[in-house]
Write a structure and sequence with these properties.
Distance between the termini: 42 Å
CATH class of the largest domain: Mainly Beta
Radius of gyration: 23 Å
Number of domains: 2
Number of helices: 1
Helix content: under 10%
Strand content: over 45%
């Protein structure tokens, strides 16, 4: 009897494991099969030992300096999957999958590779060191719920191509209380505009393709963007001003136009960014005070589990813009944790920095924490810059200061030939109370500014170094992914 019960138990476990193996792929709309395709790679995916399923390889533009055609695929799964990638042009000698801290080891066989994924993630597959014609693979978790297309509070974009009817600024205007669902296999060609609204969700697995801006959030509250892909907007991927309680999760972004930042926040507070992949030809993530018609402090940000690839400008840029009409604004209580920085290319030496705090326009920047951040070698720039700034092009006045900045478990592997900078403007505009705990340059613990290759200016106070053990990162972004 006990043996019989054991067999039943094992059968139940096997059934659960089989049911846990789920794979969902999304064919492209017929209207774009040829126009959006990139044939540099052939990509397939399957459940372990199952039948291979072909994926559609989307073309995405990258790098404004000299725009190039790269590739992108996406799918959803649970359990584990096997992936096959064939490079269709030229011979192959080597392949690398980044972020390298994920430790994915492909098996190379001629011009093709295979590898396994045991959890969702966002990766770059680079044959022979080519970062401009690489393959971006986005493996999403399975969606736990999808809205009812017949619900009057749901704006449902099913598989196919969708264009705004009236085209005022090429925008879909979203009202309060609405859920916008962009299904896998859907292409939306127009920005989603949230203006003076609240309680809006923009979710799904589909693509916003070449909009003026991907999602624009103005004077709004409680807006969530979750799961979608934005391909080559002419301006920002997400532009947010004068808004609060914003959540950006599992967003994937590409841009290769002028001023095509990723996530730009002007006078926004209570912001959560989690599990995003941003490859942009301007700053990937910015936090500012006042700009244009948006006024107010910027407080309470959590940016976690992000992959940032700045083909132009900064992965993280804080503090440049603010309000000089009165006493200035405060940018405070910002957390950046578990971040992979894959590229930084800033041509202006005075503005460089993978992690840049440039306090201008009477801004006071304080209480910022950078933790568990891995930085790959980059084209041009500095690891970090903390500066009270005054740029003739952008500022009407310098910032007030920078204080209480904490760097913990920062790892940089690269040439490190451009020194980082920490400096205020004068004795009344200081950078102070900056702590480094566990900063490692090419694997070596930095215990002072010389070992960290930091130029410390005259107008600084209380810059300290401590030791710490770095944390190993997971391929999985957030335990709360959809």
């Amino acid at each position: 009897m006990q043996k019989f019960l054991s067999l039943i138990f094992l059968a139940c476990i096997y059934t659960l494991e089989v049911n846990a193996q789920e794979l969902i792929t999304y064919p492209p709309p017929k209207a774009v099969v040829y126009s959006m395709h990139n044939d540099d790679y052939t990509v397939k995916v399957r459940k372990p030992g199952g039948e291979w399923e072909d994926l559609y390889e989307y073309n995405v533009k990258v790098d404004l300096d000299k725009p190039q055609d790269a590739s992108m695929v996406y799918f959803d799964f649970s359990g584990s999957v096997e992936v096959f990638v064939q490079k269709n042009n030229g011979n192959t000698e080597s392949v690398k999958i980044r972020p390298s801290s994920y430790e994915i080891k492909p098996v190379l066989n001629g011009n093709s590779i295979t590898f396994a994924l045991a959890e969702p993630g966002k990766i770059s597959i680079e044959f022979d060191g080519d970062k401009l014609h690489n393959l971006h693979l986005f493996a999403n978790p399975i969606e736990t719920s999808r809205p009812d297309p017949n619900d009057p509070d749901v704006i449902y974009f099913g598989p196919g191509v969708h264009v705004p009817k009236d085209l005022p600024g090429e925008a879909f205007n979203i009202a309060s209380g609405k859920t916008v669902y962009i299904a896998g296999g859907a292409i939306v060609r127009g920005k989603l505009l949230c203006d003076k609204v609240k309680d809006v969700r923009i979710i799904g697995r589909g693509i916003i393709d070449q909009p003026q801006r991907g999602v624009e959030i103005r004077h709004s509250s409680n807006v969530t963007v979750d799961g979608i892909i934005v391909v080559n907007p002419k301006h920002y991927t997400i532009f947010a001003g004068g808004s609060d309680h914003l959540t950006i999760r599992n967003l994937k972004s590409f841009s290769a136009s002028s001023w095509s930042d990723g996530l730009d926040f002007m006078s926004c507070s209570d912001v959560t960014v989690d599990d995003v992949f941003m490859r942009n030809s301007d700053d990937c993530i910015t936090v500012y005070g006042h700009r244009w018609e948006f006024y107010g402090d910027a407080k309470n940000y959590s940016v976690t589990n992000a992959i940032l690839w700045a083909d132009v400008a900064h992965p993280i840029n804080i503090g440049v813009h603010g309000n000089t009409e009165k006493t200035g604004e405060v940018i405070e209580n910002l957390l950046f944790k578990n971040i992979e920085i894959l590229e930084h290319d800033e041509d202006d030496p005075t503005a460089e920095g993978c992690m840049a705090i440039q306090a201008g326009d009477m801004n006071l920047v304080r209480n910022v924490r950078f933790e568990d951040i891995h930085v790959d070698n980059f084209q041009e720039g500095k690891l970090l810059q903390l500066k009270v700034a005054f740029y003739d092009k952008y500022n009407a006045a310098p910032g007030r200061g920078i204080e209480n900045i904490y760097f913990k478990n920062i790892s940089y592997n690269g040439i490190n030939n451009s020194p980082s900078i920490i400096n205020g403007l004068d004795k009344d505009h200081l950078v102070k109370d900056v702590t480094f705990e566990g900063l490692r340059i090419n694997g070596k613990l930095a215990t002072n500014v010389v070992e960290a290759n930091i130029k410390l200016g005259e107008f600084t106070k209380n810059i300290t170094f401590r030791s710490s053990q770095p944390m190993k990162k997971s391929l999985m972004g957030s335990p709360n992914q959809r």
